[in-house]
Amino acid sequence: MNFLRRSRKTETSTAPGATTYEKHHTRTKSNKAGFDVNSGNFNRRPSFGQWIKMTWLDILTMAAMGAVGLGIYNADPAPSRSFPITFRDGEIVYPEFAYPLRTEIVPIWEAALLASLIPIAVFLLMQIRIRSFWDVNNAIIGLLYSLITAAVFQVFIKWLIGGLRPHFLYVCAPDLTRVQAAGGEYLGQGFGRIMFQRDICTGDRAQINDSLESMPSGHSTAAWAGFLYLYYYLNAKLKVFSNYHPAMWKIIATYAPVLGAFLITGALTIDEFHNWYDCLAGAVIGSVMATSAYRMVYASVWDFRFNHIPLTRHTPFSYGAGQAGAGGFETAVFTRKAGWGYEEAYGGAPFDAAHHLRGAQTGFNSGIHDDSHGRHLGRREGDVEHNAALPPVRTSPEENRYRMHSRSLERKAVNNRGSGVL
């Protein structure tokens, strides 16, 4: 397929006396500049040292939170829960906790791997067209924010609150001789002495500990933290809910992760490892963390104008107010329909009142290029953010014809690369 082919980069030189437009659009070694926070174009790969400098604190925090979560996960449950067992006639008080212990349909390690590796694989696959280091960086780091924070959140609740699993009485295997005396009187605690604690259990200690930590569901938490995050990413990159009518396959692809989260969650009620309210609590935790994490690393969750733009650590995103443009991330979308995915020389939020020439003509983003003495700073070569609100450079008729011809060739090249792809 054409869009899988990388265009060949040739080394050329700009002839003396060439126009400003020709100099700007000629491919040279100097145009392959590295990441520079002062350039205005942030969609460039940093050096490893630059990346570490901006990311080391997150790496350290994630490692620390992972260690905390693992420690709590392996700790014994903190609360000592009371529970009834049978009525006087031998009937089980809560049969919903008397299911047999079965093998999990989806083990917890598998749920965690699916919720992490599938989204990462999709992020990388999308780079076939997006080709942005910071997009895949923000996507993966945001996913880790979601999964790790949700996991630590839910293990704290499991440890300090917990609840009885549907197979609790089966793995507890209570000593019924300690439940009632020969005369039928209960030997427990509380009103009527009908409540007991885990000291009456005779089953495996590890299984009893696990059966006391049912709420919230870790499977459900991981599934929704990972797959709902992937849903937000696909919606942003495919522009499913935006300003044009997309193809049907896009909504199918976008909601496939949500279906996966539902299937993993529902399986827990089939193998009787969780109650429905455990699954609901886990889904809420995972969904909240996925939404929060996505918003931390991208400019919006639902606003179609911005939700594809990765946020940087060093420069605030202007949302069409103040400096215009998207820091070079205008192309950080997978779709190429309805004008999406193409760089603009004049900025603002895509398709809003401050976008392109409309912004300059209607007074958006004006008056931002004066220094402290009121002197105009002028244009900067290759600085989209700085030059966005400036009026177009006046050119000769010959340069205008060259520009129109160049744009025509660029559109044809884009159409050829995207032929046959929705």
TrEMBL record:
One of its GO terms (biological process) is phospholipid metabolic process. Residues 396-413 have a biased composition (Basic and acidic residues). It is found in: Membrane. It is a multi-pass membrane protein. Signal peptide: none annotated. The chain crosses the membrane at residues 54-73, 108-128, 140-161, 217-235, 247-268, 280-298. It holds the Pfam family PAP2. Its main location: membrane. One of its GO terms (molecular function) is phosphatidate phosphatase activity. This is Phosphatidic acid phosphatase type 2/haloperoxidase domain-containing protein. It comes from the Eukaryota. SUPFAM superfamilies: Acid phosphatase/Vanadium-dependent haloperoxidase. GO terms for cellular component: membrane. Residues 1-36, 390-422 are annotated as: Disordered. The keyword Transmembrane applies. Keywords: Membrane, Transmembrane, Transmembrane helix. Residues 141-294 form the Phosphatidic acid phosphatase type 2/haloperoxidase domain. InterPro entries: PAP-like (IPR043216), PAP2/HPO (IPR000326), PAP2/HPO_sf (IPR036938). It comes from Lithohypha guttulata. Belongs to the PA-phosphatase related phosphoesterase family.
